[in-house]
Amino acid sequence: MSIRVQKVFEALFALEDAREVLRQTLPTGLDPDEETVFRTKIARAQAILDNLDERGSSPGATRIAGTLDIRTREEDTINIQPIQAAGRLTPEARKALIAYGDGYSTCDACRKPFRLDKISRPPIAAFHENLAKFLNMDIARVVPGARRGFQAVTNTLVEKGDPVIVSALAHYTEFLAVEAAGGVVREIPVNAQNVVTADATAEKIEEVHYETRRLPKLVMIDHFDYQFANEHDVRGVAKVAHQYDIPILYNGAYTVGVMPVDGKAIGADFVIGSGHKSMASPAPSGVLATTEEWAPEVLRTTAMVGDVTNRKFGIKEVEMLGCTLMGANLIAMMASFPAVKERTMCWDEELKKSSYVIDGLHAIEGTNVLSEYPRKHTLSKVDTTASFDRVACTHKRRGFFLSDELSRRGITGAFAGATRAWKLNTYGLSWKKVRYLVENFQEIAEKYDLAVRREKQ
Amino acid sequence: MSIRVQKVFEALFALEDAREVLRQTLPTGLDPDEETVFRTKIARAQAILDNLDERGSSPGATRIAGTLDIRTREEDTINIQPIQAAGRLTPEARKALIAYGDGYSTCDACRKPFRLDKISRPPIAAFHENLAKFLNMDIARVVPGARRGFQAVTNTLVEKGDPVIVSALAHYTEFLAVEAAGGVVREIPVNAQNVVTADATAEKIEEVHYETRRLPKLVMIDHFDYQFANEHDVRGVAKVAHQYDIPILYNGAYTVGVMPVDGKAIGADFVIGSGHKSMASPAPSGVLATTEEWAPEVLRTTAMVGDVTNRKFGIKEVEMLGCTLMGANLIAMMASFPAVKERTMCWDEELKKSSYVIDGLHAIEGTNVLSEYPRKHTLSKVDTTASFDRVACTHKRRGFFLSDELSRRGITGAFAGATRAWKLNTYGLSWKKVRYLVENFQEIAEKYDLAVRREKQ
User: Fold this and answer.
1) What pLDDT does residue B457 have?
2) What letter does residue B87 receive in the DSSP assignment?
3) Are B356 and B125 in contact, with CB atoms under 8 Å apart?
4) Taking a C-beta distance cutoff of 8 angstroms, is the pair A87, A278 a contact?
5) pLDDT of residue A232 exceeding 50
6) Can you tell me the distance from the alpha carbon of B450 to that of B444, in angstroms, rounded to the nearest whole number?
7) DSSP strand E in B322-436: where?
8) Is pTM, for the whole model, over 0.90?
9) Of A23, A64, A99, the CB nearest to B92
10) How high is the mean pLDDT of chain A?
11) Among A19, A91, B227, B391, which residue carries the largest CB count within 10 Å?
């Protein structure tokens, strides 16, 4: 950990300790003892800031609850971890966590009809409208993770034994959401380029229909899959599904929040996004958006009546289990939202940086890109079996030689020990950082006698 | 907002801005421009701390993303809101949010078999074991809210049309969890004291059996209910349920994290707790604990196989949808856990403070306690129809006169405008604060000519 990073954490923590004194006091103000404690905590923060570059304090000074080390991956390194990149918080989201961390912090001004998405202070109701607009859908709900959005849809549409079409590259949470609802996944095969096409979807629907004598209840399609981040023909798939009157769930875990997503143009009946994967939000968080046609089903309100009390909770939505994403996670999503909206407009620039890195890796003798090429996403899978893995074969640290080298250069997030097929994500890295990445990967390669084609980039 | 509270937030936010500079830089360190920006941000934090009591900055200085006001309810007031009390964060949990806010922050060292509860750095696996021990159950999982724990159990046990027994004071999320699984709730009537007894449970089971020719699949019982926070005979109810071989779900939303809970002694098959309600954790968070007998069912792993790829995700648990509570919420739960464990040992002291406040309100002419008395919980429902509501009848602000008076005295959380039946929760307030509460409620009463029995307390 760099000393400055540690000191900034120490100062933040000292201020939280000072804040706690304010929390414990009466509305009438601090008594003399509290004043002394408060002053001491503030003085500690001041001392830390006054000596920001001086060592002296132990790393334990930042340990949380005596046992938890702080996490400084984003401060100390360039993080190319495949799923973490676009879930990195904005400074505004971090401030939201500071201000809204307490359990039911969103619920201070909850009034009739008592539902999260109706709260106007903080402006949660307006955020829901903006979310729907952002995705060009009719209505949106926040959910504790994309998987909970999948579950709401499958649990609404799928009965026991019903087939549900997914892609052969579908994320495991789609499998689970179908299984939890009692359904059975049927995969659309990918083509030679590892891409799902409309034709393959039509064939699969026919196959399922022929075999089971029933039509699938739902088609779930990842716009970009988690394995290669290849782009699949979501519009074509949606068109085919609709020809059979099957609704389509667009899995935007890798798109919503990083690139423009127009649900209506895609023809999606449900758009699901992940807050912690692609919307600069804390986990768990996500979004489920749908159309006016489907909202009455997936967002149906409770019909249950207590047989003794006759109680009804009519406004509460069954699949949402009432209120969904209370507290800090929601406010952090809201705090990141303006930046998130804006960044989706810069997707082309992100693709340029991604290509720059991929080309830089490609220039290392024996390195291949397993994802479709040229890249349409910042997440990519590369194959270094004929480059870094050749080194690993004879290195005493085996595959960890690469992790060691990267770590020494302040690069984290590549799977530790992996030197064959592995993934990286350049989302949100500055040009300075992507250049640093390429330089360092190529330097490592040359250090171990792998040839590098030095092209003008 | 008090000026000091504002300044502490401003300083925290200035440090987050400084931290952002460290995040944007290369591993090789700040360049001269970054150094300047970093120094400016730190200087801003220093200036704020040096002038902690001087007005000058606008309240907008703490606005998040330009639109979100900060929340200072816990700093500026005594908060007696019924559901917020025990979900207030510890300072350690707040530090955890600062350090682990980024989306997939828990997943840096995720290794085979790739499941959240198996991660050992940070010590998530050990936390799961400690959680189970804490509740005296065999196995525990974290979930995004107690309701998601209910859902996992109902979705496992309940088939379409199956009856599920709940209390006539059951929380609405139990209704929804049953409904989402396709079941039907059947309520156990409460007795004259608004308490659920074992006998009433047996009668209800018999009644359901007689009417539907089938036994209920599950009994869900709130140890303390959300309306009165009366204590229900959970051991007796569990015993009766087991006589019919029906498993019991113990809803500990109001107990787990504030008082000792011994699942085995209760006879619970499932223990559910709420992080944001009672474990000093951010929303959404919660715990589901179960026995070795029931774990293979409710925590069953996926059996789904991809028909094209033959993919299996064998380690992932269906009802958990794989990994559950990644990120900051989990680490904050872990950070609060030592303090939470300890505070459950001080439940008697919390009850004394609760009684002190309830007695103090009782001393106001015409005030009644609707919850069972003496109180066994810190959440209580009082009836001020014959006291404060009498004032409201003729006051030009109607019921809001009480909110106004309380707010002026720095007391928040009573439902705005309510002067008849309303709830309060004293959990976690110091003796100094509960004395302040009683004094101020009684002063307000006397100001409006309500008699107060001044007893030596």
Assistant:
1) 46
2) G
3) no
4) yes
5) yes
6) 9
7) 368-369, 379-383, 411-412, 421-425
8) yes
9) A64
10) 97
11) A19
